[in-house]
Amino acid sequence: MKKIAVFASGHGSNARKICEYFSSNPHIQVVLIGTNKSDAGVLNHAKDFNIPTITFDKKKMWEQNFIKENLMPFGIDLIVLAGFLLLIPPSWVEHYPQRIINIHPALLPKFGGKGLFGSHVHNAVKASGDAETGITIHYVNAHYDEGEPILQVKCSVFPQDTPEQIASRVLKLEHFYFPRTIEKILLSN
Ligand code: GRF
């Protein structure tokens, strides 16, 4: 059995899709949901799917024993960041090389980096006048949004679109492609 941990800071709609997608998979299982927000929507999804949770703050993530005490007991094969807003410490990247992935709601390297998350991304896309945006699924390194890309999928941006309309078009792509990409990565390793 391949084991996934999903980390999210907000609504967790991607986390929910991932839990749904793998809920009856005989080879892949979501074993842990992590968050840095005690009121994050993702905690409700974890309850619905009966998945253990962990809530921690930024400081805790950087503690030397964090991985050993909180993650290693779960035997995690892949850490999936689905709207997780904190920077991943280098010790995590060393411990899980090419085994932490993130989804970004734009076509990196455009519209990425510190401060470019959630609605900020779609506002920036709208302001740029670009005719297309999309999603990037990428490996995580110790810098925001800079790891090696795994998959990019594009969609149109129409001149009359609001940032909310752009966000909703992009989110549909995320919900479809993220679980399938996770599956592909895990089954090819
Ligand atoms: C998604 O757009 C994801 O790309 C970004 O944060 C958003 C999270 O949405 N990193 P949700 O919490 O999964 O609904």
Strand and helix map with partners:
Layout: E1 2-7, H1 13-22, E2 28-35, H2 42-48, E3 53-55, H3 58-61, H4 66-71, E4 78-81, H5 90-95, E5 100-104, H6 119-128, E6 132-139, E7 149-156, H7 163-187
The structure holds 5-O-phosphono-beta-D-ribofuranosylamine (GRF).
5-O-phosphono-beta-D-ribofuranosylamine (GRF) binds at residues 8, 10-15, 82-83, 103-105, 117-118, 171, 174.
Structural commentary:
- This protein has 189 residues and is α/β, with parallel strands linked by helices.
- It has a single domain, classed as Rossmann fold, CATH 3.40.50.
- Helix content is 36%, strand content 22%.
- The chain has 7 helices and 7 strands; from the N terminus they run βαβαβααβαβαββα.
- It has a 7-stranded mixed beta sheet, covered by helices on one side.
- α1 runs parallel beside α7 and α6 crosses α7.
- The two termini are 12 Å apart.
- It binds 5-O-phosphono-beta-D-ribofuranosylamine.
- The site of 5-O-phosphono-beta-D-ribofuranosylamine (GRF) has 16 residues, from α1, β5 and α7.
CATH superfamily: Formyl transferase, N-terminal domain
The molecules bound to the chains, other than polymers, are: 5-O-phosphono-beta-D-ribofuranosylamine
Shape: globular
Fill in the CATH topology.
Answer: Rossmann fold
